[in-house]
């Protein structure tokens, strides 16, 4: 069976709602979801350690990166994971896999694009193939890509939950990736 890996960090749960929406969208499809939330306990002396996860990611056809935007980039917890992937970088173990990204921020223009840009660079370092959105901003009835970023999913939140349109964007990305790997 095909597999999609999602590696993410979320502190207050906004990014996690995007991850859940992505997974739920594909729940009835014959695809395994390997979802991993980065935990502080996995970061020992500043270094992310989870060899089992690194092995599992190598069996995926697509890997999604997700993190809140912190100070115009990924959260430190995600960066610790990214740095740990250097162990499989030299042999390009993730090469040829589809990569995509999702992030949330407190501001509508809170430099979330920089987080997606970092994900793209990480994907490129691994020889992965980046997949953004083939949907112009607010073009369809679900208002996918509300914030006008085709590099990936950007969300902001209201009352502790991402905007419905941003959740729809996460679902749209899930469908798009599934179409490519199935
Ligand atoms: C340390 C820190 C830095 C942040 N920096 C930004 C930022 O640069 N841009 C932004 O839009 N929001 C920023 N935020 C807000 C978070 O990105 C936002 O609350 C996000 O939705 C939290 O995601 P989570 O619920 O998945 O943890 C920051 C929050 C924290 C705690």
From TrEMBL:
InterPro entries: Flavodoxin/NO_synth, Flavoprotein-like_sf, FMN_Rdtase-like_dom. Gene3D superfamilies: 3.40.50.360. Residues 4-178 form the Flavodoxin-like domain. Keywords: Flavoprotein, FMN. PROSITE patterns: FLAVODOXIN_LIKE (PS50902). Pfam families: FMN_red. PANTHER family: FLAVODOXIN-RELATED PROTEIN WRBA-RELATED, FLAVOPROTEIN-LIKE PROTEIN YCP4-RELATED. This is Flavodoxin family protein. It comes from Photobacterium leiognathi.
